[in-house]
């Protein structure tokens, strides 16, 4: 299941989508997101593909991607200058 919320002028990432447990693709590109706080995507354990391109993201919380096993993450065209060492879960 995929959710496309591209170009909607969103300032925050949606907390919940219907059937969130089944969501494997989320496109939040070309919005006005500036901050991804801790546990932003915690309600989407099946998420594999995440598009965040073309926002105003300048801060990503250390656990924003906690419990995710992303195969693709797009962060191009944002305002990031640094990225913490642990925003991604360690692999076993």
Automatic annotation (TrEMBL):
The keyword Lipoprotein does not apply. The keyword Signal applies. It comes from the Eukaryota. Keywords: Signal. InterPro entries: Dev_Immune_Receptor (IPR050328), Leu-rich_rpt (IPR001611), LRR_dom_sf (IPR032675). One of its GO terms (cellular component) is extracellular space. Pfam families: LRR_8 (PF13855). This is Uncharacterized protein.
